[in-house]
Fold this protein.
Amino acid sequence: MAWPQTLIDACYFIAALLFILGLRRMSSPRTARGGIVWAGFGMLLAVVATLLLPDMEHRGLIIAAVLIGVAAAWWSGRRVAMTAMPQMVALYNGMGGGAAAAIGASELIGHAQNFAIAAPNTFPLMPESWSPLHGAIAVAPLSPVALVLGVLGALIGSVSFSGSLIAFAKLQGWLDRRFVFPGQQVVNLLVLAAAAGIGVWLATGHLAIALICAFFVLALLFGVLMTLPIGGADMPVVISLYNAFTGLAVAFEGYVLQNEAMIIAGMVVGAAGTLLTQLMAKAMNRSIGNVLFGNFGAASGASAQAIGGSQKPIEAADAAVMMAYAERVVIVPGYGMAVAQAQHKVWEFAQQLIARGVKVKFAIHPVAGRMPGHMNVLLAEAGVPYDLIVDMEDINPEFPVTDVALVIGANDVVNPMAKTDPASPIYGMPILDVADAKHVIVVKRGKGTGFAGIENALFYADNTRMLYGDGQAAAGQLVSELKSLDA
Amino acid sequence: MLDGFLALYIFMLAAFTGYEIIARVPVILHTPLMSGSNFIHGIVLVGAMIALGHARTPFEMAIGFIGVLLGAGNAAGGYVVTERMLEMFKSSKPRQGSGESK
């Protein structure tokens, strides 16, 4: 069953090529769907080639593990609602980080056992014959570079693993929003320093099982501690960062295993993920450091400006009439709309307005939903055409000539305090200038604060009316009220 | 066999490739792209398979097995989720043309 090595190498090469081309295609809406299929073929090719590697043992066990993992992930990925996509990305990303950490662990432990058997001075630092593909990996020592990268990859992979799982639990609603205690950052730093210290000791060739275990425990602990204090609104940035982390970890472990496909794919993701993280943080007007260590939302409440006035309710019938006779309506959807699964009803309502000659547009904040572009995906799911969906920069100048801005389930992205109140935790974040519209109707479940736990001055503004209720129910009411106008 | 500098070149060129691909992407595609890159680092599955395939002790086998499970989950889950997101981009095209107003 020994395949020629060249053929296997060629498979890895084609897989790496397909990954890059696939990612390239995914970066344009027209070709995006083909992109994932290309990358999928690359993955299939790489996996099959790996199974056919010479001197692989436990093939049955490998196939069993692959089948179980694929089946479980496939089932969960198919079943989950579109709104839950961000946490699923976090979950699968964490799995990748865990796998990278497992590779690192298995390499380190394998060599620790080596260490115990062989006399330390009998092996050269970098033997010429060393190649994992010739079965020598189990006995040949790692080169110093490989050892350093292996330890580094294991550290990053572990942090990504435990951190992503916490991110998943938070977005899933299994964990309270934030955990903060005094001196938290000092504790985090100490844990990281301890993990890094042991890592350096390991990387210089002092491989002992107990140390390796301590290293992984500390690294995993750091991932948990680092993610716990981060607020839910910042999760997209964090998930994107962990995505980049996993990519790096994969690339490093790929070097240890001398697997070029892993190095290339991991590094491409590492770089792309880092840039994506920066873009997301920029969209929220925050730096990555600020997200990770800024304790977002901690200052809300007491120090923020007091808001005068009251929230003024409106009935669905009045809201429907208001929009039916308006010239321009801008709909601002937020995550609340997605949670209520109201996008289809909202689109139905918008279609009715369009049929009446109202100019309807959908305004999307860069971080609407849980991730940049998340809201576009949800609206696309409901069938809203692209030309009606407008980005923040393009729609903001239009708000002063807009008759009615309908805000559904959005909160922080339309909060004027981001502009007016330096004490507000979201101060400086670019927002949709909904308050400039002649009338604002806000569909909201109740009087509480939003996901980030911040008061919103928009709700108390003179030109704002609150339509209380679940997003789907409210949209349904609007639809039926509009219909009754024609009756 | 990859020696130090050859590997360094690969690291560098791959990093530029990743950076350049993302640099021109519209916001609409950020989420699918994050998901897509999440799928691509599912290649870690290959590494986990190699680790399990070379495991000698039951302990190493257990770690390798977990690694393959997780890696397979990363790859398959990443694929399904990305594919589902991108599917919507396909379906929205023809509707745009028909104008859809009653």
